[in-house]
Amino acid sequence: MVIAKKWVVVQASKGFPKISDFKLEEEKLRPIEDGEFLVEAVYLSVDPYMRAYMSRLPKNSTMIGGQIAKIIESKAPEFPTGKYIYSSTGWRTHSIINSKQLSDDMGLLTIILPDFGNLPLSLGLGILGMPGNSAYFGFLEICKPKQGETVVVSGAAGAVGSHVVQIAKIKGCTVIGIAGSDEKGKWLTEELGLDYFINYKTQNIEEELKKAAPNGVDCYFDNVGGEISTTILNQMKTFGRVSICGSISGYNATEVQKISSPYFTIVTKQLTLQGFIFSTWNHQWFEGIHANLKWIQEEKLKYRETVTEGFDNMFTAFTDMLQGKNLGKAVVKV
Ligand SMILES: NC(=O)c1ccc[n+]([C@@H]2O[C@H](COP(=O)([O-])OP(=O)(O)OC[C@H]3O[C@@H](n4cnc5c(N)ncnc54)[C@H](OP(=O)(O)O)[C@@H]3O)[C@@H](O)[C@H]2O)c1
Q1: Dihedrals φ, ψ of 38, to 5°?
Q2: Quick one: average pLDDT of 294-322?
Q3: In angstroms, what is the span from residue 4 Cα to ligand 1's centroid?
Q4: The Enoyl reductase (ER) domain covers which part of the protein (predicted)?
Q5: Rounded mean pLDDT of the chain?
């Protein structure tokens, strides 16, 4: 009999998550039935959306999340033993998956990982997975960047942000990135080719943006929301395009956030703002993965991962990521 370990949410977090909101438990798994397969987690993801969506979970649910796992037993021919999959089974070491239920409430799909060549399997959680497709489609389809334009990316050193920075460079744009430490700025400018870095914790974004983009901003890829985003919207050019990917600045808020209204600037500059969810492009999932894989192979796209060792450290990895301790994608190696 297989005994799974799992992280259970025992109470909705109020504000920043506490370890007492979670419990690490064991579960005896039943034998698999026809059409099912059993997987063992290899890498688990910790993502900001988990903080935003965990509040909706019924008490004592397994914490939500995606993982790369190995199929260790199968009664579903299309999912043979030995293959590696991505699935949103939650924070657990072993899971039984029904091959007829391959999509979750958020639209995350269970897939057999494509061949990444010599690249690590963990990339299926980041640059060659959901964050990678969010960057690829969310930036290209909504911002429609053109050569010579000026692009601002907030949350620029994270999984999605660092990827968008590089796509914008590939497209011939001038790119301004905003993140929370000078170490992140060094990586973005020295290794990823970012043109101008702004540390939102120590610098005045408005003043720095005026220096970096004196003629205004054409495209803004927004990972953070809040006051940072209003400041950027105020410095956009007429007909600027904004892709709204996330609003992490508010995910741990205990009260309604009060920010300066961007409406006057949206109207007078005739801006286009569009939010998106990655699953809009689920029908093009492998197109995004293969485009990003090709860029990595051509050395046009680089990646960093912040790897935490040990399933028992899921909570630490999660809260470290929420506090910005990650460079690139935050993952946990079982
Ligand atoms: N719409 C979609 O389909 C979709 C898909 C994937 C992700 N997202 C969203 O995209 C954003 C980035 O996700 P990710 O997976 O790439 O995460 P990530 O950027 O790798 O990690 C989160 C980062 O957020 C930053 N952060 C934390 N608190 C902040 C605050 N108050 N203000 C500004 N920045 C803050 C931290 O970096 P600093 O050191 O810079 O603070 C941290 O490293 C999130 O908002 C997420 O919800 C949306």
Answers
A1: -110, 130
A2: 98
A3: 30
A4: 15-332
A5: 97
